[in-house]
Amino acid sequence: MQEWLVPYVSTVWALGMSGALLLIQLLVVDLAGIKARHRPGTPVEADHGDFLFRATRAHANTNESIAAFTLLALFGVLSAASPGWLNALSWVYVVARVVHMVCYYAGFQLPRSVAFGVGLVALFSMFVVGVSAWAS
Fold first, then answer.
1. What is the distance, to the nearest Å, from the Cα of residue 18 to the centroid of all Cα atoms in its chain?
2. What is the rounded distance in angstroms from the CA atom of residue 107 to the CA atom of residue 129?
3. What letter does residue 102 receive in the DSSP assignment?
4. Rg (CA), the chain
5. CB atoms < 10 A from the CB of 106, how many?
6. Using CA atoms, how far apart are residues 58 and 38, in angstroms rounded to an integer?
7. DSSP, res 50
8. In this model, does residue 136 exceed pLDDT 80?
9. Angle (nearest 5°) at CA 56 between 55 and 60
10. Distances (CA, A) of 77 to 96, 104, 119
11. How many whole angstroms separate alpha carbon 45 and alpha carbon 116?
């Protein structure tokens, strides 16, 4: 590992875990689709009572935010942002995404929305930490 990357090893791990989370969600969607005998390529009916729909939405939602997480983590690392803050916020994002996923699977709407909000605040905070490195 490059010496300059050592302070950000936790952020790098969070990047890897977010990729693993996306992979797990993809497998859950695939298995749920197989179990429901869903025909590939056809839309999933919008029904929050249906696990396949909830699993599809959880995966899609992570897919929608993971690019921002990856770019903001890279921006922070390449900007030499505060490692403590960037590492912590990276894990706040990952944990929030896990909680969001579990709540979506279980159909818990309010905790799911709170977890989404926490993840969004973590992403915005990662941007602020990256920008603040340039102001120093």
1. 6
2. 34
3. H
4. 17
5. 12
6. 17
7. -
8. no
9. 115
10. 21, 31, 19
11. 23
The one-character DSSP state at 42 is: S
Whether 56 contacts 104, CB under 8 Å: no
Q: Residue 14: which of 93, 126, 107 has the closest Cα?
A: 93
1 has pLDDT over 80:
no
Each residue's pLDDT tens digit, 27-80? 999 999 999 999 999 999 999 999 999 999 999 999 999 999 999 999 999 999
Tell me the one-letter amino acid at 74.
L
Tokens of residue 98, six digits: 């896990």
Q: Which pair of structure tokens corresponds to residue 13?
A: 């791990």
| Four-residue CA torsion sign, 27, 37, 42, 32 | negative
Q: What gap in Å lies between CA 52 and CA 57, rounded to an integer?
A: 9
